[in-house]
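User: Fold both of these, please.

Assistant: Here is the first one.
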Amino acid sequence: MHPALQGLLTIIIGVGGCVGYFYFANLLLDKVLFKPEGPNAGRNINRANMIRPWLFLLPAIIALGLYLAYPVVATLRLSFLERLPGNEFGFVGFENYSKMFGEPKFIEAMKNNVLWLVIVPAAATGFGLLAAQLTDRLSWGNIAKSIVFMPMAISFVGAAVIFKLVYEARPEDVAQIGILNHLYLVFGGAEPQQWLQIPFWNNLFLMVVLIWIQTGFAMVILSAALRGIPEETVEAAIIDGANPFQIFFKIKIPQIMSTIVVVWTTITIATLKVFDIVFAMTNGQWETQVLANYMYDKLFRANDWGMGSAAAMIIMLMVTPILVWNVYNARKEMR
């Protein structure tokens, strides 16, 4: 069967299955279990209405359990095991965690992840807010926003390839194809630099890629928030003699602070899981290791499922509090 027809058939079966499930679930509640007739009609209707949402949510709960909860439990279990000869596993308790925390590469990955967390969300949110404010009242603002948002359409690996060419270094007597080295030599640099091999600074050059991608996301969300600010508050501030900086920092930002927090936490979660950029540009060399790349190395290169799973659990533990906080703030906004 042609792949396109196979995909279409899968969609039809999936949609038909969902419609059929909801139809028969309603039929089961109203015609078999809780008939809306007789002396207990009112009680049966109430019971059916109590059960109906859970019955409709059951497919989603099963899917979440199968594709989210089960992998977490399985990964947690693997983190306490050690692979033995013969493709068997033995229980080692917290030994994988203690070995992992004793490895210099893991400590390096933790330090770099903290550095990414400090810089990337703040920079992407700040640049996004600046772009949203500067393009808000311009006649060609939508064109500018489209250009800033465009990197969001590029995959992380694609963006990594683009910036790897930006940072490319050729011998001094050869024309530079890397924009950064070309500018460096034009402005008096002595010789081309291997930017991705300079410790500490290479981490910043990698962060630029994620900031470049996430700024567009931050700009779109914050631009919508700025448009939602009541004009009366801005006009009152102008009448009171406030200058543009005072209006921006003391009138607008306080009113969209909850949106700024949501954008910041969303970018923070993406930053914690960063993998593609580091993998494609340095592969964790030259002191650029991060937790997700460390996990990949242990799982698929060293074939050490125990330590790889332990690294995955560390990433999940770091992401979970931010996720919970984000959901809490979102629910508070909906009240």
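And the second sequence with its predicted structure:
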Amino acid sequence: MVSSIVGNYLVSKGVISVEQFKDLLAEQRKVRVKLGLIAVAEGLMTQEEADKVNRLQATMDKRFGDIAVERKYLTKGQVESLLKKQGNAYLAFAQALENQQLMTIEQLEQYMVDFRHDNQFTVSDIEDLKSDDIDRILPLYMPIAGIEYTEIAGTALRTLMRCVDVELYPEKAYLASECEADNGAIQYVEGEPSVTCGLLGKGEALWPTASIFGQEAFMEVNEDALDAVGELLNCINGLYASTVSQRGIIMELCPPEFSTQISGVEGEEMLVLPIHIQGQKVDCVIALGNKIEMKQEA
């Protein structure tokens, strides 16, 4: 998720192109993060020191960490700590940027300063983002007044990542009484409190979600496509119901509803979480303790 968030930010700023971003994601899947890049990212070495060790590796049959310790750039303890971070997605994205000769980790970190200011994040927030942990990232995009929605929203994001698009990313969520849409599916779950969860789109925005989850190339966002979206909601809500059942909360899933001709949905209060999936923006709507109703086109 962090790669998509940061990568799309760089695209929006004109730093990299859409095609370069696609190439970066492909590169990231096969990249092994170099210890020197992590050391620079952690502020333990300068880029110049890392480059010097890399050059020495070309003439010495030794690992980066061993040379860095010999040169007193790092301690053995620091090397061990850095090795544990080689699987980090943010650092893998940074390594892909370097491999593609687009920018160094130091240059990326400078753009991250701009990203932090643009999004009004704290330094601690950025560390949460870099962790690539949904449970740490999602609260950054939740409204303060809607923090009680975090658990079900997290279930929705994790399910969508597993079943539809591992590269999806969210926008800032907000509370509202209505949400505009052309089509979508919703599902009511009886319980205490009750839950209504929906996936809404405009035009053909839900087409990739329906096609990937339904494992069928739908021609358009029709009733068959939305039936697949309804089944996806059934998975999301089923997982949520299973989780809360461990706390003694019993929930019963009602059949999903869907429509190809709506003007949106409305309710007393709902969380609207915009999610970018396969290049399309889909709104995940969630209500706790009240129902969301579809508004049919006039």
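The first helix runs from residue 2 to 12.
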